[in-house]
Design goal:
The chain is α+β, with helices and mostly antiparallel strands. The protein folds into five domains: about 80 residues, no CATH class; about 150 residues, OB fold (Dihydrolipoamide Acetyltransferase, E2P); about 270 residues, no CATH class; about 90 residues, no CATH class; about 260 residues, Metallo-beta-lactamase, Chain A (4-Layer Sandwich). About 50% of the residues lie in helices and about 15% in strands. It is built from 29 helices and 27 strands. The strands form five sheets. It has an eight-stranded mixed beta sheet with strand order 18-17-16-15-14-13-26-27. The chain has a seven-stranded mixed beta sheet with strand order 19-20-21-22-23-24-25. A hairpin with a 2-residue loop joins strand 2 and strand 3. Helix 2 crosses helix 4, helix 11 crosses helix 13 and helix 16 packs antiparallel against helix 19. The longest helix is centred in the middle third of the chain and has 29 residues. The chain is globular and about 95 Å long. It starts with a helix and ends with a strand.
């Protein structure tokens, strides 16, 4: 902590961030209780820690102001739309705030973001100045108070932002949407909708995500005619729209210079347009931890600044003038590349650094980094929760702190090699906790990929690609010639990423660690590197030097010997290992013990961090994941075995003529919901995957699971569905040498002593039949199995229909009952008969069903039958994900309740 006293600005910023973070993590009453405790500890810190009163007071003040500033912004981050329409309701002319969903409105506002066009979907953010409920009264947001509520509080000055989601009706409307730009004033009609919250534990919370962008409502519209462009005045947004137009034109030029997917890649690399890289190519970068290459950051700014400064100096421009030109270039480059937190950070640091260099005041890069962080957080405190902000500042600080500690390990290598190794290793160490916290995966090949590709991309592809773009304005053929080696290099880059990504066994999945785990990881790594760096400095030519801080007597003895022998002052005296006094031996071995203790602690942390969320123990778990209209259940046995039953699936009703509607990266429930949740829960492999039947809403998401996770076995119902999805799943399983079994009545699986799966349906097939039959109607052939775990029983039935239920009951000879029934076919009226319920006598029913499904599931008759039997009914459309813990026959149920 004393380092903070020697860097006051760094200490102030750290305390500001700590105060803001705690104000975000805990409620106000608990924060001020904690603050009071810290205040009471201050005298003890000053007396026993010998901290100066004034400096400690400044740090406490920074901590307090940071927290108050966060609370102030949170108190103002409220919806004016809600308040304005609620004011209408209070006068008897409107509806309640909770009932505003679906309300038709007409708005006037200014587009304040990029206009993103993907397929038939157009997304942008609008800053509202006026909103009118169709058939109602107007709410003017240009004033500090609403017209209907002059005394209202919590208004956001300048109007509230809303996110627009517009669905185009015909391909001809794409031209109209392409003319919309940031800064245009528009009139828009649509319906208000609240953003969706997370429907699964640990799932993505879109409402919270928009909240931290100060957005509280979606406006959903249909057709380009819903938008009317109005004549607007010139302003900051219109200027940014001009910058967007320039970026688009640069992107079009890059498309002419580079073919196919390379155009999207170079757009991300040079001007920060990441969304246009092919999803498959982007996934390769993601798996190897290389996405930072596409995020415009310090390395991009440094390379471009270095090129400009070098060219100016070659043209014999004075150093002062060259620095001034660079100082002007940096903010322009920040604007051009998209104004992301990482490029803002690097831009501020570069500008501060250049200014301090010109004044001769550049002494400490940590202080420059701290100043950049404080400026950004004063401008927008919610940057603190931005992943790009966190990674950018953490990695930059880590490079400053860790690189000097790592370089001594590579003293025997050339300076450039040791520097590259130290920088790459430091970046990996610092980014690792944040990577697994947000993305829940880490490739063991990441370090190798970064060592191989980052220098090549940053040192060759980026500058040459930029040169090709700039030279194309002088003579386009010249730009094409310069682009040739870049094309070859890009092909080699993605061949390398594809080859590395195809190596199995190197991808690891981690549950999201706690903040305490992350802090301890950084602390232990720093201690290990610090002690190791000191030891490395004490070794020269196979000998060990005396540490100046632990052997002052030996140092004096060496000085006397140096004078006696008249050695020059630059020559150091070393003792051969093993000639220490007893006191020196104890000190050295204390350090060895300390390093060993820290190394063991770090290893244990990594071990527990890698363990699944539901690790081995006495408790069994069932997680009914909300995948919309579909089924997906993860069973984790007491021994830690994982069985996935179905995987949901996105059902498409598109026609061939609707090909223009297809998005570059369409939503797929397996890739967007199931796989991220499995990773977040630390699932490393699946012991079995059960496909109850071949309908899309049950198996569509399993393709993504097979591609991401090792799977020991796949169980199907003894038939194949005539669909591309089923064909692709089977081919993937065969190519990965995953055994495929046909489940049948009488089959038993025993993952452990306390878990048993008895398969009740379908019936065994004729063994003479070598091939699996194709069945168009898959529902009657659904797999039915009874799960018994920790003395509790569960029945899974897929989409079984009434006729098949009767067939199963005829085959049952001894009475059985279950505690929990997975209700068939999402609660369809074609299943779950009275006889079925009377036989199994379930106490709990779980219905997996979409919140806005078009089938009317669950049917009222089914719900009535369940209620008549006094069953507790849990539904994913109303309660989100449903989780059941089982131990000694007792069950504990919790649900997400979105």
């Amino acid at each position: 902590m004393r380092r903070l006293l020697r860097r006051p600005l760094t200490g102030i910023v750290c305390c500001w961030i700590a105060g803001s973070a705690l104000a975000h993590l805990i409620d106000a009453s608990r924060f001020w209780l904690l603050w009071s405790g810290i205040l009471l500890l201050c005298p003890a810190i000053c007396i026993f820690g010998r901290w100066p009163w004034r400096k400690l007071g400044v740090l406490l003040l920074a901590f307090t102001v940071g927290a108050v500033y966060w609370m102030y912004n949170e108190s103002r981050n409220v919806s004016q739309i809600s308040e304005g329409l609620s004011a209408l309701e209070s006068s008897g002319k409107g509806t309640e705030q909770d009932k505003l969903d679906g309300l038709s409105v007409r708005t006037i506002g200014t587009i304040v973001s990029d206009v993103e066009i993907d397929g038939d979907r157009v997304d942008f953010t609008v800053k509202l100045s006026q909103i009118t409920r169709l058939g109602g009264e107007k709410v003017d947001q240009s004033n500090k108070a609403n017209q209907q509520n002059q005394e209202g509080e919590g208004n956001i000055p300048g109007g509230e932002k809303a996110r627009v989601q517009l669905r185009l009706a015909a391909p001809e409307q794409l031209k109209a949407a392409a003319t919309w730009r940031r800064g245009q004033e528009i009139s828009l009609t649509g319906s208000l909708e609240r953003p969706q919250t997370a429907r699964n534990f640990g799932g993505f919370d879109y409402r919270k995500y928009l909240h931290y962008q100060r957005i509280h409502w979606l406006i959903k519209s249909a057709g380009s005619e819903a938008v009317t462009v109005l004549p607007g005045k010139w302003g900051a947004s219109r200027f940014l729209g001009t910058v967007d137009t320039l970026r688009v034109s640069l992107g079009e030029r890059l498309e002419r210079l580079f073919p196919d997917w390379q155009a999207g890649y170079m757009k991300g690399l040079i001007i920060g347009l990441q969304d246009e890289l092919e999803p498959a190519k982007y996934a390769q970068f993601t798996q190897l931890g290389l996405t930072h290459i596409l995020a415009i950051s310090g390395s991009h700014v440094a390379i471009n600044v270095g090129i400009i400064f070098g060219l100016l100096r070659l043209l014999r421009v004075s150093r002062e003038t060259a620095l001034l030109v660079v100082l002007i270039f940096v903010p322009a480059y920040v604007l051009l590349t998209g104004f992301s937190p990482s490029v803002i950070r690097s831009g501020i640091m570069t500008m501060l650094g250049i200014y301090l260099l010109r004044r001769g005041l550049m002494k400490d890069s940590i202080n420059v980094l701290s100043a950049a962080a404080l400026l950004m957080l004063l401008w927008e405190p919610y940057f603190l929760l931005n992943v790009s902000f966190q990674l950018s500042f953490a990695v930059t600080a880590g490079l400053i702190i860790f690189v000097p500690l790592i370089r001594p390990y590579f003293n025997g290598l050339p300076a450039k090699v040791s520097g590259t190794l130290a920088i790459t290793l430091a970046a990996q160490i610092v980014s690792f906790p944040l990577t697994i916290y947000y993305f829940n995966q880490f490739s063991l090949l990441s370090l190798l990929a970064n060592l191989l590709l980052v220098p090549v991309i940053g040192g060759i592809a980026l500058p040459l690609g930029t040169a090709a773009l700039l030279l194309s304005f002088l003579a386009f053929p010249l730009g094409m010639w310069v682009a040739v080696p870049v094309k070859l290099l890009n092909s080699a880059t993605f061949w390398t990423t594809e080859w590395l990504g195809s190596r199995s066994g190197f991808m690891t999945y981690w549950k999201s660690p706690s903040l305490l785990w992350i802090a301890l990881f950084y602390g232990f790594c720093f201690i290990l590197l610090y002690l190791g760096a000191r030891r490395a400095k004490l070794h020269v030519g196979g000998q060990e030097a005396i540490d100046d801080e632990t052997a002052p007597l030996s140092r004096l003895h060496g000085q006397r010997e140096e004078k006696r022998n008249q050695r020059p002052p630059s020559v150091k005296v070393y003792r051969i290992r093993g000639t220490y006094s007893l006191s020196q031996w104890i000190t050295v071995h204390q350090r060895v013990l300390l390093r060993s203790a820290v190394a063991i602690s770090l290893t244990m942390m990594l071990w527990f961090g890698y363990a699944p969320e539901n690790d081995k123990g006495a408790v069994g778990h069932l997680q009914f994941i909300d995948v919309g209209q579909g089924d997906c259940t993860l069973i984790t046995t007491p021994s830690g075995a994982n069985i996935l039953v179905d995987g949901g699936g996105t059902v498409s009703f598109g026609k061939p003529s609707d090909a223009w509607r297809k998005r570059r990266d369409p939503y797929e429930v397996g890739a967007k919901t199931v796989v991220p949740l499995l990773k977040k829960r630390g699932i490393h492999r699946l012991d079995a995957m059960i496909l109850t039947h071949g309908d899309q809403d049950h198996i569509g998401g399993l393709q993504a699971v097979l591609e991401q996770f090792p799977v020991d076995a796949v169980l199907i119902n003894g038939s194949l569905a005539e669909s591309k999805t089923m064909e692709k799943i089977m081919n993937t399983a065969l190519n990965r040498h995953i055994p495929i079994y046909s489940a049948y009545r009488g089959m038993v699986l025993k993952p452990d002593e306390r878990t048993r799966l008895d398969f009740l349906y379908p019936l065994p097939q004729d063994k003479k039949t070598a091939s699996l039959p194709y069945a168009e109607d898959q529902n009657p052939r659904s797999i039915v199995f009874r799960l018994e775990m920790n003395e509790a029983a569960f029945l899974f039935v897929g989409d079984l229909d009434e006729a098949s239920e009767e067939e199963v009951l005829k085959l049952e000879k001894t009475e059985q009952r279950v505690d929990v029934l997975k209700v068939a076919h999402h609660g369809s009226k074609t299943s779950t008969t009275e006889d079925w319920l009377s036989y199994w006598k379930p106490a709990v029913g779980v219905i997996s069903v979409g919140a806005t499904n078009r089938y009317g599931h669950p049917h009222e008759s089914v719900l009535t039958r369940l209620q008549k039997r006094g069953m507790a009914v849990f539904r994913t459309d109303q309660q989100g994900e449903i989780q059941i813990e089982v131990q000694n026959g007792f069950m504990k149920v919790r649900y997400k309740e979105p």
